[in-house]
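Example for tutorial group B:
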Protein backbone atom coordinates (compact mmCIF):
# COMPACT_ATOMS: atom_id res chain seq x y z
CA UNK A 1 0.00 0.00 0.00
CA UNK A 2 1.16 3.50 -0.82
CA UNK A 3 -1.33 6.06 0.47
CA UNK A 4 -1.58 9.40 -1.32
CA UNK A 5 -2.46 12.85 -0.07
CA UNK A 6 -5.91 12.35 -1.63
CA UNK A 7 -6.34 9.06 0.28
CA UNK A 8 -5.64 10.86 3.56
CA UNK A 9 -8.03 13.65 2.64
CA UNK A 10 -10.75 11.06 2.04
CA UNK A 11 -9.96 9.49 5.44
CA UNK A 12 -10.17 12.94 7.04
CA UNK A 13 -13.60 13.55 5.52
CA UNK A 14 -14.89 10.06 6.35
CA UNK A 15 -14.06 10.44 10.06
CA UNK A 16 -14.74 14.22 10.36
CA UNK A 17 -11.11 14.70 11.44
CA UNK A 18 -10.25 18.05 13.06
CA UNK A 19 -6.68 17.42 14.26
CA UNK A 20 -3.58 15.78 12.76
CA UNK A 21 -1.05 14.35 15.20
CA UNK A 22 2.45 13.24 14.18
CA UNK A 23 4.34 10.66 16.27
CA UNK A 24 8.13 10.25 16.39
CA UNK A 25 10.09 7.80 18.51
CA UNK A 26 13.17 8.63 20.59
CA UNK A 27 16.16 6.45 21.38
CA UNK A 28 14.49 5.13 24.56
CA UNK A 29 11.41 4.02 22.63
CA UNK A 30 9.02 6.74 23.82
CA UNK A 31 6.70 8.45 21.37
CA UNK A 32 6.84 12.25 21.06
CA UNK A 33 4.25 14.16 19.08
CA UNK A 34 3.52 17.40 17.29
CA UNK A 35 0.03 18.47 16.35
CA UNK A 36 -1.57 20.67 13.67
CA UNK A 37 -5.17 21.61 12.83
CA UNK A 38 -6.52 19.75 9.82
CA UNK A 39 -6.53 22.99 7.80
CA UNK A 40 -2.70 23.05 7.81
CA UNK A 41 -2.42 19.66 6.09
CA UNK A 42 -1.23 20.42 2.57
CA UNK A 43 0.62 18.56 -0.23
CA UNK A 44 3.68 20.73 0.54
CA UNK A 45 3.94 19.06 3.94
CA UNK A 46 4.92 15.85 2.12
CA UNK A 47 8.04 17.52 0.67
CA UNK A 48 8.82 20.32 3.13
CA UNK A 49 8.12 18.39 6.32
CA UNK A 50 8.06 19.82 9.82
CA UNK A 51 11.18 20.89 11.70
CA UNK A 52 12.08 19.59 15.17
CA UNK A 53 14.97 19.44 17.62
CA UNK A 54 16.72 16.10 17.20
CA UNK A 55 18.84 16.58 20.33
CA UNK A 56 15.70 16.33 22.47
CA UNK A 57 15.22 12.81 21.09
CA UNK A 58 18.68 11.70 22.24
CA UNK A 59 20.06 11.19 18.73
CA UNK A 60 22.25 14.21 17.92
CA UNK A 61 24.11 16.95 19.75
CA UNK A 62 22.52 20.33 20.36
CA UNK A 63 24.83 22.27 18.02
CA UNK A 64 23.59 20.27 14.98
CA UNK A 65 20.13 19.32 16.08
CA UNK A 66 17.83 20.85 13.45
CA UNK A 67 15.98 18.02 11.71
CA UNK A 68 12.78 17.46 9.75
CA UNK A 69 10.14 14.75 9.84
CA UNK A 70 7.79 13.87 7.02
CA UNK A 71 4.68 11.85 7.89
CA UNK A 72 4.38 8.33 6.51
CA UNK A 73 0.88 8.38 5.05
CA UNK A 74 0.64 4.58 5.18
CA UNK A 75 0.90 4.75 8.97
CA UNK A 76 -2.27 6.83 9.44
CA UNK A 77 -4.76 5.73 12.08
CA UNK A 78 -7.68 7.35 13.88
CA UNK A 79 -6.57 8.06 17.44
CA UNK A 80 -8.89 6.20 19.84
CA UNK A 81 -8.08 8.33 22.90
CA UNK A 82 -7.87 11.95 21.65
CA UNK A 83 -10.57 14.35 22.83
CA UNK A 84 -11.34 15.55 19.28
CA UNK A 85 -11.45 13.47 16.07
CA UNK A 86 -7.74 13.04 15.40
CA UNK A 87 -5.77 11.30 12.68
CA UNK A 88 -2.31 10.17 13.81
CA UNK A 89 0.67 9.38 11.59
CA UNK A 90 4.24 8.28 12.29
CA UNK A 91 6.95 10.63 11.06
CA UNK A 92 10.11 9.68 9.17
CA UNK A 93 13.19 11.64 10.24
CA UNK A 94 15.53 13.48 7.86
CA UNK A 95 18.81 15.36 8.18
CA UNK A 96 19.00 18.84 6.69
CA UNK A 97 21.87 19.61 4.31
CA UNK A 98 21.87 20.64 0.67
CA UNK A 99 18.66 18.64 0.62
CA UNK A 100 16.99 16.12 2.88
CA UNK A 101 18.65 12.77 3.60
CA UNK A 102 17.09 10.02 5.66
CA UNK A 103 18.48 10.12 9.20
CA UNK A 104 20.52 6.94 9.65
CA UNK A 105 19.68 6.65 13.37
CA UNK A 106 15.92 6.98 12.96
CA UNK A 107 14.85 3.68 14.58
CA UNK A 108 12.12 3.19 11.99
CA UNK A 109 14.69 3.61 9.21
CA UNK A 110 16.95 1.05 10.92
CA UNK A 111 14.04 -1.41 10.75
CA UNK A 112 13.60 -0.71 7.03
CA UNK A 113 17.32 -1.28 6.43
CA UNK A 114 17.24 -4.54 8.39
CA UNK A 115 14.40 -5.82 6.21
CA UNK A 116 16.31 -4.80 3.07
CA UNK A 117 19.43 -6.55 4.39
CA UNK A 118 17.43 -9.75 4.88
CA UNK A 119 16.10 -9.61 1.31
CA UNK A 120 19.59 -8.89 -0.10
CA UNK A 121 21.03 -11.85 1.80
CA UNK A 122 18.99 -14.30 -0.27
CA UNK A 123 18.12 -16.22 2.90
CA UNK A 124 14.50 -15.05 2.96
CA UNK A 125 12.47 -12.07 1.85
CA UNK A 126 10.28 -11.79 4.96
CA UNK A 127 10.77 -12.27 8.66
CA UNK A 128 7.59 -12.28 10.72
CA UNK A 129 7.67 -11.33 14.41
CA UNK A 130 5.05 -12.07 17.06
CA UNK A 131 5.76 -10.40 20.42
CA UNK A 132 3.98 -11.13 23.68
CA UNK A 133 3.43 -8.02 25.82
CA UNK A 134 3.33 -8.59 29.58
CA UNK A 135 2.51 -5.69 31.90
CA UNK A 136 0.85 -4.83 35.21
CA UNK A 137 -2.49 -3.04 35.48
CA UNK A 138 -2.43 -1.19 38.80
CA UNK A 139 -4.74 1.09 40.76
CA UNK A 140 -2.12 3.40 42.22
CA UNK A 141 1.59 4.18 41.96
CA UNK A 142 3.64 6.64 43.98
CA UNK A 143 7.39 7.10 43.69
CA UNK A 144 9.91 9.68 44.76
CA UNK A 145 13.69 9.91 44.69
CA UNK A 146 14.85 12.95 46.62
CA UNK A 147 17.82 13.92 48.76
CA UNK A 148 16.15 12.64 51.92
CA UNK A 149 13.19 10.60 50.68
CA UNK A 150 13.38 7.46 48.52
CA UNK A 151 10.11 5.57 48.24
CA UNK A 152 7.93 3.50 45.90
CA UNK A 153 4.40 2.40 46.69
CA UNK A 154 2.38 0.22 44.27
CA UNK A 155 -1.16 -0.97 44.80
CA UNK A 156 -3.61 -3.23 43.00
CA UNK A 157 -7.20 -3.92 44.04
CA UNK A 158 -6.83 -7.61 43.15
CA UNK A 159 -3.59 -8.13 45.12
CA UNK A 160 -3.64 -10.53 48.07
CA UNK A 161 -2.66 -7.80 50.55
CA UNK A 162 -6.04 -6.14 49.87
CA UNK A 163 -8.01 -9.08 51.28
CA UNK A 164 -8.25 -7.03 54.51
CA UNK A 165 -9.33 -3.39 54.79
CA UNK A 166 -9.11 -2.78 51.05
CA UNK A 167 -9.12 0.91 50.09
CA UNK A 168 -11.03 -0.09 46.93
CA UNK A 169 -14.04 -1.55 48.74
CA UNK A 170 -16.80 0.16 50.68
CA UNK A 171 -16.24 0.01 54.47
CA UNK A 172 -17.50 -3.31 55.76
CA UNK A 173 -18.09 -4.66 52.22
CA UNK A 174 -14.78 -6.09 51.07
CA UNK A 175 -15.66 -9.03 48.74
CA UNK A 176 -12.35 -10.80 49.51
CA UNK A 177 -11.74 -12.05 45.97
CA UNK A 178 -8.04 -11.32 45.74
CA UNK A 179 -5.34 -13.05 43.71
CA UNK A 180 -2.52 -14.86 45.48
CA UNK A 181 1.09 -14.06 44.64
CA UNK A 182 2.11 -15.87 41.45
CA UNK A 183 -1.51 -17.00 41.12
CA UNK A 184 -2.84 -14.84 38.33
CA UNK A 185 -2.27 -17.07 35.30
CA UNK A 186 -5.52 -17.29 33.30
CA UNK A 187 -7.46 -16.32 36.44
CA UNK A 188 -11.16 -15.75 35.78
CA UNK A 189 -13.58 -13.23 37.19
CA UNK A 190 -14.19 -12.11 39.89
CA UNK A 191 -10.41 -12.30 40.45
CA UNK A 192 -9.45 -10.91 37.03
CA UNK A 193 -10.35 -7.27 37.65
CA UNK A 194 -8.86 -5.84 34.42
CA UNK A 195 -10.84 -8.14 32.11
CA UNK A 196 -13.28 -5.43 31.03
CA UNK A 197 -10.48 -2.92 30.46
CA UNK A 198 -8.55 -5.43 28.35
CA UNK A 199 -11.63 -6.04 26.22
CA UNK A 200 -11.92 -2.29 25.63
CA UNK A 201 -8.21 -2.11 24.80
CA UNK A 202 -8.48 -5.08 22.44
CA UNK A 203 -11.27 -3.52 20.42
CA UNK A 204 -9.35 -0.21 20.22
CA UNK A 205 -6.22 -2.03 19.07
CA UNK A 206 -8.16 -3.82 16.35
CA UNK A 207 -9.51 -0.44 15.18
CA UNK A 208 -6.00 1.04 14.84
CA UNK A 209 -4.58 -1.91 12.93
CA UNK A 210 -3.11 -4.03 15.73
CA UNK A 211 -4.69 -7.50 15.44
CA UNK A 212 -4.80 -9.20 18.83
CA UNK A 213 -4.26 -12.96 19.08
CA UNK A 214 -5.55 -13.12 22.66
CA UNK A 215 -5.27 -11.55 26.11
CA UNK A 216 -5.30 -13.08 29.59
CA UNK A 217 -4.17 -12.76 33.18
CA UNK A 218 -0.51 -13.60 33.75
CA UNK A 219 1.27 -15.13 36.76
CA UNK A 220 1.78 -11.96 38.78
CA UNK A 221 -1.00 -11.70 41.34
CA UNK A 222 -1.16 -7.89 41.64
CA UNK A 223 -2.62 -7.39 38.14
CA UNK A 224 -0.12 -8.83 35.66
CA UNK A 225 -1.64 -9.48 32.23
CA UNK A 226 -0.56 -10.31 28.71
CA UNK A 227 -1.65 -9.22 25.25
CA UNK A 228 -0.24 -11.26 22.38
CA UNK A 229 -0.54 -9.80 18.88
CA UNK A 230 -0.60 -11.45 15.47
CA UNK A 231 2.58 -11.78 13.41
CA UNK A 232 3.79 -9.03 11.07
CA UNK A 233 7.00 -7.98 9.28
CA UNK A 234 9.63 -6.11 11.27
CA UNK A 235 8.77 -2.45 10.76
CA UNK A 236 5.04 -3.11 10.89
CA UNK A 237 5.30 -5.09 14.13
CA UNK A 238 7.39 -2.30 15.69
CA UNK A 239 4.75 0.25 14.64
CA UNK A 240 2.15 -1.98 16.26
CA UNK A 241 4.21 -2.23 19.45
CA UNK A 242 4.23 1.57 19.73
CA UNK A 243 0.51 1.76 19.07
CA UNK A 244 -0.17 -0.95 21.65
CA UNK A 245 1.72 0.80 24.45
CA UNK A 246 0.05 4.11 23.55
CA UNK A 247 -3.46 2.62 23.57
CA UNK A 248 -2.90 0.47 26.67
CA UNK A 249 -1.51 3.30 28.80
CA UNK A 250 -4.01 5.93 27.74
CA UNK A 251 -7.11 3.74 28.04
CA UNK A 252 -5.88 2.57 31.44
CA UNK A 253 -5.63 6.18 32.64
CA UNK A 254 -9.04 6.98 31.14
CA UNK A 255 -10.49 4.10 33.19
CA UNK A 256 -8.87 5.07 36.50
CA UNK A 257 -5.97 2.61 36.22
CA UNK A 258 -2.25 2.88 35.54
CA UNK A 259 -0.03 0.48 33.59
CA UNK A 260 3.66 -0.35 33.77
CA UNK A 261 5.71 -2.37 31.29
CA UNK A 262 8.66 -2.34 33.71
CA UNK A 263 10.36 -5.75 33.71
CA UNK A 264 10.38 -6.04 37.52
CA UNK A 265 8.11 -3.62 39.38
CA UNK A 266 7.40 -5.97 42.34
CA UNK A 267 9.82 -7.63 44.71
CA UNK A 268 9.17 -11.37 44.82
CA UNK A 269 6.56 -11.33 42.04
CA UNK A 270 6.71 -12.34 38.38
CA UNK A 271 8.58 -10.03 36.03
CA UNK A 272 7.20 -8.82 32.71
CA UNK A 273 8.94 -9.82 29.49
CA UNK A 274 8.35 -9.31 25.79
CA UNK A 275 8.90 -12.78 24.36
CA UNK A 276 9.57 -12.54 20.62
CA UNK A 277 8.45 -15.31 18.26
CA UNK A 278 9.96 -15.25 14.76
CA UNK A 279 10.04 -17.20 11.54
CA UNK A 280 11.16 -16.53 7.95
CA UNK A 281 9.67 -17.01 4.49
CA UNK A 282 11.00 -16.88 0.93
CA UNK A 283 8.58 -16.45 -1.95
CA UNK A 284 5.81 -17.29 0.50
CA UNK A 285 7.36 -20.60 1.57
CA UNK A 286 8.53 -21.17 5.18
CA UNK A 287 12.28 -21.65 5.58
CA UNK A 288 12.32 -22.70 9.24
CA UNK A 289 10.59 -26.07 8.77
CA UNK A 290 12.15 -29.51 8.32
CA UNK A 291 10.14 -32.49 9.48
CA UNK A 292 13.34 -34.47 10.08
CA UNK A 293 15.13 -31.70 11.98
CA UNK A 294 15.36 -31.18 15.73
CA UNK A 295 11.86 -30.16 16.92
CA UNK A 296 10.89 -29.82 13.25
CA UNK A 297 13.40 -27.04 12.59
CA UNK A 298 15.44 -26.65 9.41
CA UNK A 299 19.20 -26.09 9.37
CA UNK A 300 18.45 -22.47 8.45
CA UNK A 301 16.41 -22.08 11.63
CA UNK A 302 19.11 -23.73 13.74
CA UNK A 303 21.75 -21.43 12.23
CA UNK A 304 19.51 -18.44 13.06
CA UNK A 305 19.31 -19.73 16.63
CA UNK A 306 23.10 -20.12 16.63
CA UNK A 307 23.51 -16.49 15.58
CA UNK A 308 21.14 -15.16 18.22
CA UNK A 309 22.73 -17.22 21.01
CA UNK A 310 26.26 -16.30 19.88
CA UNK A 311 25.34 -12.61 20.15
CA UNK A 312 22.85 -13.00 23.03
CA UNK A 313 24.92 -11.02 25.53
CA UNK A 314 25.48 -8.14 23.09
CA UNK A 315 21.81 -8.13 22.11
CA UNK A 316 20.78 -7.28 25.68
CA UNK A 317 22.11 -3.75 25.08
CA UNK A 318 19.10 -3.30 22.77
CA UNK A 319 16.63 -5.96 23.94
CA UNK A 320 16.98 -5.35 27.72
CA UNK A 321 18.17 -1.72 27.87
CA UNK A 322 17.07 -0.70 31.38
CA UNK A 323 18.63 -1.21 34.79
CA UNK A 324 15.32 -2.77 35.85
CA UNK A 325 15.70 -5.42 33.11
CA UNK A 326 18.32 -7.17 35.23
CA UNK A 327 16.04 -7.38 38.26
CA UNK A 328 13.94 -9.69 36.08
CA UNK A 329 16.82 -11.62 34.51
CA UNK A 330 17.88 -13.51 37.60
CA UNK A 331 18.02 -17.30 38.07
CA UNK A 332 14.91 -19.22 39.15
CA UNK A 333 12.54 -16.31 38.68
CA UNK A 334 10.46 -17.47 35.70
CA UNK A 335 12.78 -15.52 33.38
CA UNK A 336 15.45 -17.04 31.11
CA UNK A 337 19.10 -16.34 31.93
CA UNK A 338 20.84 -19.37 30.38
CA UNK A 339 22.14 -18.83 26.83
CA UNK A 340 20.80 -22.04 25.33
CA UNK A 341 17.83 -23.47 23.43
CA UNK A 342 15.39 -26.33 23.80
CA UNK A 343 12.01 -27.63 22.66
CA UNK A 344 9.16 -26.35 24.84
CA UNK A 345 11.73 -25.25 27.46
CA UNK A 346 10.69 -21.96 29.06
CA UNK A 347 13.85 -21.79 31.19
CA UNK A 348 16.12 -21.36 28.15
CA UNK A 349 16.73 -18.11 26.29
CA UNK A 350 15.31 -19.67 23.11
CA UNK A 351 12.29 -21.98 23.20
CA UNK A 352 10.83 -23.94 20.29
CA UNK A 353 7.06 -24.00 20.91
CA UNK A 354 5.78 -27.57 20.91
CA UNK A 355 2.36 -26.54 19.61
CA UNK A 356 3.71 -24.87 16.42
CA UNK A 357 3.95 -28.00 14.26
CA UNK A 358 2.89 -27.08 10.71
CA UNK A 359 5.43 -25.74 8.17
CA UNK A 360 3.90 -22.23 8.10
CA UNK A 361 3.84 -21.92 11.92
CA UNK A 362 7.21 -23.51 12.71
CA UNK A 363 9.22 -20.94 14.63
CA UNK A 364 11.24 -20.25 17.75
CA UNK A 365 10.80 -17.80 20.61
CA UNK A 366 13.49 -15.48 22.01
CA UNK A 367 12.47 -15.05 25.66
CA UNK A 368 14.89 -12.56 27.19
CA UNK A 369 13.68 -9.20 25.70
CA UNK A 370 11.41 -6.85 27.61
CA UNK A 371 9.21 -3.91 26.67
CA UNK A 372 11.62 -1.21 27.91
CA UNK A 373 13.31 -1.79 24.54
CA UNK A 374 12.86 0.49 21.55
CA UNK A 375 10.89 -2.01 19.41
CA UNK A 376 12.45 -0.99 16.08
CA UNK A 377 15.99 -1.41 17.42
CA UNK A 378 15.15 -4.53 19.43
CA UNK A 379 13.60 -6.47 16.55
CA UNK A 380 16.23 -5.21 14.08
CA UNK A 381 19.09 -6.35 16.33
CA UNK A 382 17.52 -9.80 16.76
CA UNK A 383 17.09 -10.14 12.98
CA UNK A 384 20.69 -9.05 12.34
CA UNK A 385 21.97 -11.71 14.76
CA UNK A 386 19.82 -14.36 13.06
CA UNK A 387 21.06 -13.37 9.59
CA UNK A 388 24.65 -13.47 10.82
CA UNK A 389 24.08 -16.98 12.15
CA UNK A 390 22.57 -18.15 8.87
CA UNK A 391 25.28 -16.62 6.70
CA UNK A 392 28.07 -18.00 8.88
CA UNK A 393 26.24 -21.32 9.36
CA UNK A 394 26.64 -21.16 13.14
CA UNK A 395 25.68 -24.54 14.57
CA UNK A 396 24.13 -23.93 18.02
CA UNK A 397 24.91 -27.50 19.11
CA UNK A 398 28.67 -27.43 18.55
CA UNK A 399 29.44 -24.60 21.04
CA UNK A 400 27.18 -26.22 23.65
CA UNK A 401 24.06 -24.06 23.36
CA UNK A 402 21.91 -27.19 23.52
CA UNK A 403 19.45 -28.55 22.94
CA UNK A 404 18.60 -28.68 26.63
CA UNK A 405 15.37 -30.35 27.69
CA UNK A 406 15.92 -29.84 31.42
CA UNK A 407 15.08 -27.09 33.90
CA UNK A 408 17.95 -24.62 33.51
CA UNK A 409 17.28 -23.20 36.98
CA UNK A 410 18.18 -26.48 38.65
CA UNK A 411 21.36 -27.57 36.90
CA UNK A 412 24.06 -29.62 38.54
CA UNK A 413 27.33 -27.78 39.22
CA UNK A 414 28.91 -29.68 36.34
CA UNK A 415 26.19 -28.69 33.86
CA UNK A 416 26.15 -25.10 35.11
CA UNK A 417 29.80 -24.69 34.11
CA UNK A 418 28.86 -25.60 30.53
CA UNK A 419 26.16 -22.93 30.13
CA UNK A 420 26.85 -19.21 29.80
CA UNK A 421 24.48 -16.69 31.38
CA UNK A 422 23.16 -13.39 30.12
CA UNK A 423 24.70 -10.21 31.58
CA UNK A 424 23.79 -9.55 35.21
CA UNK A 425 23.54 -5.77 34.88
CA UNK A 426 23.03 -3.01 32.32
CA UNK A 427 26.71 -2.06 32.63
CA UNK A 428 27.70 -5.63 31.67
CA UNK A 429 25.23 -5.51 28.77
CA UNK A 430 26.87 -2.32 27.50
CA UNK A 431 30.31 -3.93 27.74
CA UNK A 432 29.06 -6.93 25.77
CA UNK A 433 27.54 -4.70 23.07
CA UNK A 434 30.71 -2.65 22.77
CA UNK A 435 32.80 -5.82 22.37
CA UNK A 436 30.44 -7.49 19.87
CA UNK A 437 28.52 -5.27 17.46
CA UNK A 438 30.08 -5.87 14.04
CA UNK A 439 27.11 -8.04 13.08
CA UNK A 440 24.83 -5.01 13.56
CA UNK A 441 26.88 -2.88 11.14
CA UNK A 442 26.46 -5.33 8.23
CA UNK A 443 24.67 -3.79 5.27
CA UNK A 444 24.81 -0.37 6.95
CA UNK A 445 21.78 -1.27 9.06
CA UNK A 446 23.03 0.07 12.40
CA UNK A 447 25.49 2.97 12.46
CA UNK A 448 28.45 3.46 14.77
CA UNK A 449 26.80 6.70 15.96
CA UNK A 450 23.62 4.90 16.97
CA UNK A 451 25.55 2.21 18.83
CA UNK A 452 27.68 4.85 20.60
CA UNK A 453 24.52 6.70 21.67
CA UNK A 454 22.97 3.46 22.95
CA UNK A 455 26.14 2.61 24.90
CA UNK A 456 26.23 6.09 26.41
CA UNK A 457 22.59 5.86 27.45
CA UNK A 458 23.02 2.42 29.02
CA UNK A 459 26.14 3.45 30.94
CA UNK A 460 24.59 6.72 32.08
CA UNK A 461 21.54 4.91 33.48
CA UNK A 462 23.72 2.25 35.14
CA UNK A 463 25.98 4.85 36.77
CA UNK A 464 22.98 6.84 38.04
CA UNK A 465 21.48 3.76 39.69
CA UNK A 466 24.83 2.76 41.19
CA UNK A 467 25.15 6.21 42.78
CA UNK A 468 21.64 6.19 44.31
CA UNK A 469 21.23 4.88 47.89
CA UNK A 470 18.74 2.01 48.09
CA UNK A 471 16.26 1.41 50.94
CA UNK A 472 17.59 -2.12 51.33
CA UNK A 473 21.01 -0.68 52.10
CA UNK A 474 19.54 1.18 55.08
CA UNK A 475 17.96 -2.02 56.30
CA UNK A 476 21.26 -3.85 56.06
CA UNK A 477 23.83 -1.24 57.04
CA UNK A 478 22.28 1.74 58.88
CA UNK A 479 23.16 0.40 62.34
CA UNK A 480 26.72 -0.74 61.57
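The residue assignment follows.
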Amino acid sequence: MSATFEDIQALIQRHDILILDFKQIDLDGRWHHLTIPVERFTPQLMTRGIGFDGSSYGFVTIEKSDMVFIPDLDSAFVDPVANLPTLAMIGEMFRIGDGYTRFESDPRHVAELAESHLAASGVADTCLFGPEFEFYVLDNVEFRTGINHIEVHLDSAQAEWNSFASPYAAPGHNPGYTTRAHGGYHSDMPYDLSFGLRNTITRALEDVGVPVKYHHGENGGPGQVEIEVEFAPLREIADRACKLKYVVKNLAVANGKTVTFMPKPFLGESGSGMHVHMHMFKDGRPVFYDEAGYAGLSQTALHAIGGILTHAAALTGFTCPSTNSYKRLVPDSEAPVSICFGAANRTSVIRIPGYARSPETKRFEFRSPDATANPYLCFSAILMAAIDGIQREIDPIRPGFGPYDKNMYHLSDEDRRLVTSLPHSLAQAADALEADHEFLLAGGVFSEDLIRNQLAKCRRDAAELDATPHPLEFQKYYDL
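The chain has two domains: 5-103, 126-477. Compare this with the pattern of hydrophobic and polar residues in the output above.
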